[in-house]
Specification:
The chain is mainly alpha-helical. It is built from 14 helices and two strands; from the N terminus they run αααααβααααααβααα. The protein folds into two domains: 291 residues, ABC transporter involved in vitamin B12 uptake, BtuC; 75 residues. Helix 2 packs antiparallel against helix 3, helix 6 packs antiparallel against helix 7 and helix 12 crosses helix 13. It is a multi-pass membrane protein. It is found in: Cell membrane.
Length: 372
């Protein structure tokens, strides 16, 4: 059970990273990207191939991030001046093109046979007792960071709700904020306790879990600073009506390009963790479904809200694990039927959510970009 929860934590963390990049592009800037997995492909294959050539893993990750940023620059420069649907079409095409290149260029990517036995971060690391306590201490700091940001987010939501709704902000709205905060605190506590046990009984996946959580915390905090800066306010203005910032002398194209490139860089980092988690990568691992899973995460959590994106990733993987648990314990449904049922149920959940709360769980209705 401990190792399964470690797997869920890693999966939730890397999908949250991946979706944070999409949330920056769409939730904050209004850029429709249906090929977000293209950046993950660049990050995963660049990291793996360069590390196999003897390059330090950290440097390989940086080059992958730069490569994804360049890809975002090329895609954005050719489409961002056109209508929004052109960007959506180009991103889908580029993602499929890169997947087919990885599938057919066996001299580079080994094709459908995939790449195995590549260097892994902390792959040969065997900490002593002091090292284990140090990692547990880092995990504790991360837990305090999450709790601190959680209370700040709850306080902000309460304040914004009172300012927007005034006296109509009654107990139901306050209770929803409190319930979501308590629910998240319980998840943090479970993850922390399980993480402490896993790190004390150290395995490779335990170390990777800690790396994922550190990366997620750094990216989340960095994005939070950016989106609340003047740069982030320009992105929100572009999302709502780009003619207004344009009239104020802002270079709309350049801001869009920056957002698209940064979102791609974050997705590239998620691609590196994706390769490290499964220790083998195949072209079939990067199908369009991964992009649409990220869209599901952003829509559920709330577009334009980074905390909502992380909550959406948690709910998504909780749903995935529960449906697998049903499959493992009942004989009345086959794996193929369960796969179809998963899609049907999550589609139904999305339909209900969009009707009842189109801004998502933590999103703000006044900042909704679904109608663009």
């Amino acid at each position: 059970m401990v190792q399964y929860l470690v797997f869920l934590t890693i999966s939730t963390g890397l999908y949250a990273l991946f979706a944070l990049g999409l949330n920056l592009q769409w939730g904050f800037t209004g850029l429709i990207n249906f090929g977000h997995v293209a950046f993950m492909i660049i990050g995963a294959y660049t990291t793996v191939l360069l590390s196999l050539q003897g390059m330090p893993i950290f440097l390989a990750v940086i080059i992958g991030i730069i490569g994804s940023s360049v890809l975002g620059l090329l895609m954005g420069a050719s489409t961002l001046r056109l209508r929004e649907d052109y960007l959506a079409i180009v991103t889908i095409g580029v993602a499929e093109f890169l997947r087919l290149v990885a599938q057919n260029e066996e001299w580079l990517t080994r094709g459908t046979f995939g790449i195995q036995r590549y260097p892994l971060p902390l792959g040969t690391f065997q900490p002593n007792l002091a090292g284990k306590y140090l990692m547990i201490f880092i995990l504790t700091l991360l837990a305090f960071f999450v709790v601190w940001r959680l209370f700040i987010n709850a306080k902000t939501r309460l304040k914004d709700g009172q300012e927007i709704q005034g006296k109509s902000f009654q107990y139901a709205s306050r209770n929803s904020v409190l319930l979501s905060t308590i629910f998240t605190l319980i998840l943090v506590l479970i993850t922390y306790i399980n993480g402490v046990i896993a790190l004390y009984n150290y395995t490779y996946k335990s170390g990777l879990m800690l790396l994922v959580l550190i990366a997620l915390a750094m990216v989340y905090y960095g994005l939070d600073l950016l989106v609340h800066s003047p740069w982030g306010r320009v992105l929100k203005a572009i999302r709502e009506d780009e003619e207004i910032p344009k009239a104020l002398g802002k270079n709309i194209f350049w801001y869009k390009l920056q957002s698209f490139m940064l979102g791609g860089a974050i997705a590239s980092l998620a691609g590196s963790f994706y390769a490290w988690q499964f220790t083998t990568i195949y072209p079939s691992s990067f199908e369009a479904l991964i992009t649409f899973n990220a869209w599901i995460i952003v829509v559920i959590g709330g577009s334009g809200n980074n905390a909502g994106t992380i909550l959406g990733a948690t709910i998504f993987w909780a749903y995935e694990s529960l449906t697998r648990f049903i499959s493992d314990n009942y004989d009345f449904i086959s794996s193929a039927q369960l796969s179809s049922l998963r899609v049907m149920i999550i589609g139904l959940i999305l339909m209900i959510l969009i009707v009842l709360r189109p801004q998502g769980i933590l999103g703000k209705k006044g900042e909704l970009s679904l109608g663009k």
